[in-house]
Amino acid sequence: MELSQDMLRELRAESGELIERFSSVWILMNSVLEKGQQVRRSEVNELFRILHTLKGLAEIATLTRVVSALHLIEDRLAEVRAERSSLESADLEVLAECQLLLEKIFVSAHQAPNESLYSDLEMQAQVFCVGAQPVAHGERISHSCMPLSTSEKELWASYTQRPEFFYAFECHGNFEDLRSRIVSVADIVIERIHDGRALFVFATELDQNLIEQILDDKVRLLQKAVSSLRSLGAAWSGLWDRNPQATFDLESAGLPRSDNSSAEDLLGSFLPEGSHDVVAQEASGEKVFAQSKPGQTQTSEIGPEVDREMIADFLQNGDELLECLTQSMLVLENNPYDSSCIEEIFRAAHTIKGTAGMIGFGCVEQLCHALENTFDRIRKKQLKITPALTDTLLVGWDIVRHLFDLLRAGQQPLANIDDYLNRLSRAERGEQVPVEKAALLNPSKTPATPIGAGGNSLKSETPKTEAIETIRVDLKRLDSLVNLVGELVIDRTRFARIEEAMRLRGTNAELSHQMAESVLLFGRHMNEVQNIIMKVRMVPVGNAFYKFTRVVRGLSRQCGKEVELVIEGGETELDKTLVEELGDPLVHLIRNSIDHGIEEPEERIKVGKSRKGSIRLSAQQQGNMIVICVEDNGKGLDVERIRAKAIKNGLIKETENLGRKDIFNLIFEPGFSTAAKVTNISGRGVGMDVVRKNIQKLKGVVDLDSNMGEGTKITIKLPITLAIVPGLMVEVAGECFAVPLVNVIESIGISRDQIQQMGQAQFVKLRDEVIPLVRFSDVLGLNQIDSNFWYKSPSPTPTLSRRRERLVFVVLGIGSERLGMVVDRLAGQQEIVIKPLGQLLGHQSGFAGGCVLGDGRVALVIDVADVMGVDAIQRGVHARRTA
Amino acid sequence: MLEELRKQLEAKLASVAHEEPAPVYAGKQFLVFRADKQEMLIAVDDVREIIMPPPISYLPRATQEIEGVIALRGEIMPVINLRRMLGFERAGLTASTRCLVSSPEEQSFALIVDELTEFVWLLEDEIDSVAQDYLSDEFKIVRAISKNSNVVRPIVDVNLLVQAVFRREQFNEQNAH
Fold first, then answer.
1. Which residue blocks in A537-655 are alpha helix, DSSP H?
2. Which domain holds residue B136?
């Protein structure tokens, strides 16, 4: 089935989220194991859920091999859940591999399938499944191949009644090719890869000669009895020898419920068309689930381990699916041949069934199974859609909805659905069935007990389940929203100005008063909106940081070093796109640290350091910047060597005299990074120059410092995307500038005689403090304005005469540093949106950016840190001259 | 009903076929503008919009070609003073002064011009490329000249302009040999 672009996008988004969650759970599990404890059940459950949903997605994308691989992993996890097996760190290694493979597979889902990825995943899944150490039997089976899974047993059983032959085929290589040949003429029942050999047991109606011709090799004919597997030899003994009591009796199998629903999936993908129902029918003679007996209402209670979150998740997903389903049903009513609707409904039913089954909502599961079957037949054109059928189907979905409601109210989702199921079969057969919704829903016989009354799930006092509501939003829309909020801030200022003008000009008092009130309210609401919007796009950087622990683990092992990753300030929030863009550069920096920075354990001990090196990844907010540091306590950088290398590469000349920092900055030059410096860059083309370029793209700066023998520290500074800050508007030389209020200590009128001179420098004594004084025009470089500014527009306020008695003195400060400026006049306080000056201008010293005023003009925003630094240097110059 | 529809459609198609084809101009379209006394051309494709000169904010310590910055619908961009860049006489705003806004590679800037003269279509043979060595430094923003009127007029290349004004180092390197 072809997937539309939209579906593919959805698929990628959803699988992406799931794979990330996979990562988080993995990290949790890992940390627990490292402390020497057992992996917690809640985490196993979570992982199971994640993989199960991924499996569903894989099925939608028709990645059948991924489905079967995930199923194997689920099998093992089910064993762990049932405490028949436990997870070790080796298992986590395998899971980590699987996560990476899954990531690659889903990312490239829209391209041609990459069979090698699938084989890798299958192999890993099999290894994972084998790792199962049966706690009860106390025997290791890791030497022989994996035993038969329940689904394989079922599949085998299904073929026993059929005319096809069973063949067993072993091969040593060329697995992919042979597999595809087999698949083209037969159904694979069992496949194993073990010890470099592959075994395929498949069923087909073709005779042995033909098969041998196709495969170019000998095959062995097997009897239908499972015992014939013995003839395969000791290598495959795992298939039949694991559990001597293994039977193929479905009903007495005593399988955990979840296995059945997943077995269903697997069957669906393996069996030839049309036999799906056959299996179910054969097992129990009725069109119901394999395990349950006909006509039986599910009465099992939901176990205590099913927690609120799971149910909330289920309900949320279920609701979404039902919503979508209903829409499709309505379309279907008018256009019964719309195949895309049918597909959608089928898939939705299937998903609800799967998740319901996994959690244990048998009733929902059964119902959905029946509905799913019906839709399957419809989509295979085995069933015609009549109005009666549609009505009946709609009733079916109503029942599902009712069951959801029961669940939401904290009760068991149980109902006697046999009546309905009978009606459904009759409707399918084309009989006219009266539509009477009320009669169908017999209230469940069991008392409405709150779910998990004895466990750590829904509290009995709060019957309403609070679903954790989220919604996925297109980032572009969010961007527009954020920009518009910035514009609104400007509009609000305009209103305020108009209101002020009205007041001063003595407009109608009543009107003026109303205006003032409205402006105030508007302002208050705007503030709230601003705060919320700013937070909307922000995600904690920790999310990205925690992913790096895996990277560090893998790399440190690879390089034979011992490194630990220390994360600080993970809760610092940063815009989502920034966090994503930072990922690659940070990984590169961490890799550098591990590869070249941290020394090997023995060497570290020799120089008196601890055996384990550490890399500290920290994030914190400083003013309107976010500062991220990657610091290691490795061997640091050798300035001389870098200098020598730079000279060799022609970056600098022998004669050039560069300071330490400048030499370090050379590392960022394109000519410097050597090829193949780090292993496994996997063609991303990342070098230090690319790191810097990426950071610059985010309008940030990156800096490097190092001490030989002590370590290296890389500092990345990024501006917070939309900085809305309160600012003080000042006028200098007829031009308007904005100073971030956070850096304004005070503004005060002083008289000329308060200015004291000391050599070249001027000071003002303010109360107890002595504050250096500079002229704004000097610091900012406004002196050339008359010759360089041809198109000066007449300023809205009259220019003042130069000589005045009282000067406006603004005291700026950062930390404990103080600097005083004289400006022409103050033009009020307002909220300003600091915008960059444009990529073409880049960084202009002294200015953090520009802000758009109410009248459309730009007021440059002073970068107080720059200004104070510049001034300090200048004063330093003066000091030296006077010394 | 379907027949009716088909007949109507055919009639319509027939009538359209008899209409005059839309006039097609050969070549590329250029905007002719004046900076002081010099008329220059710029490709229409390179000009995003033409606006009345907005109030410009002075940018201290910027290079001498840059007059200042403006905000256009919330976007802040630099303004280039072409007269000063080309070494012409100083002048101020006149009634005909306009700003051309261009965004090569999504990086916007504005250009102050004294007057918009006309739009022309030029064919290939009316455009001659110019060897950069012949030009004095300021004029290196010109890639070609047009020969359609009696006077030879330079054609400004927006990319060269951006490089010259904002990426002086790269620009100088390239033109060093």
1. 542-559, 576-592, 601-606, 639-648
2. 26-176
